[in-house]
Amino acid sequence: MRVGLAYNVKPADPPDHLPEDAFEEYDSEATVGHLCDALSALGHEVVRLGAGPGIVDALRRSDPDIVFNIAEGEGGRCREAHVPALLEMLRIPYVGSDPLTLCVTLDKPVAKRLAASEGFPTPRFRTFRSADAFCGDGLRYPVIVKPAFEGSSKGVRLSSRAVDPAQAREMVAFVTGAYRQDAIVEEFIAGPEVTVGLLGNEPPRVVGVMEIAPKTVSNEEFVYSLEVKRDWENQVEYRCPPPLPTGVIEEIERCALGIYDLLGCRDFSRIDFRIDADGVPQFIECNPLPGLSPGYGDLPIMADRMGMTYLSLISEILSHALSRQEVRAR
Hints:
Radius of gyration: 19 Å
CATH superfamily of the largest domain: ATP-grasp fold, B domain
Structural class: alpha+beta
Distance between the termini: 6 Å
Number of helices: 11
Number of strands: 13
Low-confidence stretches: none
Strand order of the largest sheet: 11-10-9-12-13
Mean pLDDT: 94
Largest sheet: 5 strands, antiparallel
CATH architecture of the largest domain: 2-Layer Sandwich
Strand content: 15-25%
């Protein structure tokens, strides 16, 4: 098949006026290369489409049979839906979740409200449009403050964990000022942080559960921040499978599969939790566009730890997408 690859790459020279992590969720050229190599090794012709306005002409020129979409989009809380919406309009099959799921999951408050409505535990939270609007009532401290619709720990710093209303207000000012969006203020869960990799449809399956265990601080103080992710080899240990009680792991998997289905995820996704003092997994967020960089992205790391090669991972993701739609053969 001819497989188009839709992606955004980090700019070599980002504008100075933007936050230092403005393009953190974009992929590196190395990641794009790894994915192209894997698809080629599977016997497909790969066409690099990029993303942004230029993708329209690229699609017309290349006429792909299916698009492997990892594009994060450009601007706004619906940005991750840009490429899938275009592909649906042009009736081109694609890998991954649809525009509605990508919009819902990027907006953390919306995703959390949906999960809570179906009985999945999630930390209490409030959203604020400015520091002046901030009110610390009704929340237990410490809290964590982060942008309402960002991924890849954008806007999350070591200082994002606030122990009192004054610190929380300061971080709300930082988020709303630097990222031009609402801040979500969420009760901080002091237990282990875990992420769950999932693949497939009807039914999906859990690839792995992985604990992100801090090396230098306790779980009670640990924030999976931008600083940590950029120095992850020194800051955290990835434990897959995690040393948690069997019953807790089973509950994590149950919640992950339920939320995957509830939010309409397709083909592949990653879902994050913190485990509270009672061993209950508290839903943090869902990422239907998880990083696919081998050796760095959480989903490929989980797959590798569970005995699945990178080539097998990419093959299975593509196979799930093909199985749910008609794709022409050349």
